[in-house]
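Action item from last week, closing it out:
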Amino acid sequence: MSTHVIIGASGQVGEHLSAAALSERLDVVGCYCRHSVPGMQQLDIRDSLAVFDLVRSLKPAVVHLPASMANVDYCEEHPQETYAANVLGVKNVVDAVNKVGARLVYFSSDYIFDGTAGPYSEDDPANPICEYGRQKVYAEHYVALNCRDYVIVRTTVVYGFERQGKNFIYRLINTLKSGNVLKVPVDQIGSPTYAPELARAAVRLAQGKEQGVFHVVGSQLSDRYEFALEAARVFGLDESLIEAVPTSQLSQRARRPLAAGMLVEKVSPYLDFCLSGYKEGLRAMKLAAREENLIS
């Protein structure tokens, strides 16, 4: 059986990657760094020896790497600390998979773009405007130049039910249920991506032979405000508590790409399903939550 190692399996993307790989009857080994989960192995990708020992012992066919320090403002304020994980950690994984002949699936972001002319294709030049985006570009370059067998999956605005409950939709649900106002930027445009579909697409790409960069995002562009309004409608929450504001009023430490989002024409021929728009994805999320008794 083909073994897929998922580094960052305790996070949102990693959790859905595990489910998608298991549905394909693949052997899955999950790793966590900070958030302990029963049945998973601890791994700090900043520790090159630990990474090599784990990969050598498991001899996987594929290593998925969604793990990163993804708090954009934290990256801006702590560039050296986050560089150690988001760039040097990626280098450690690349070096390890090369030694055992494994395939790497590395997850990147639309933050590599400046957000002036989206939605972007895979061939558009990177021009990051914040530290997190720069780190993603550095990591992508190392993967592309040094990894013998790889796929880079760029994604953005990922949502879906998750163990940690940290994504934007969770924050929206909790805030509105508490009767509090949620300020949402009306000028940040992206491609909201339903996590189970991202995972399913990544596992398909992992099992193929294609190398290079693929954008895997939802098929519908939306600004954050409209995305929030639709989520409130789907989950039966009070839309009037959502306040539209410009990004400039949020006092965020890191700059955000505004007119961003990505195109999916390149990846579509490799999939046997269509990537959902955010309206369809939010309804699928609600249905999945009900089936798992996560909501009433």
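Closing note: The mean pLDDT is 95.
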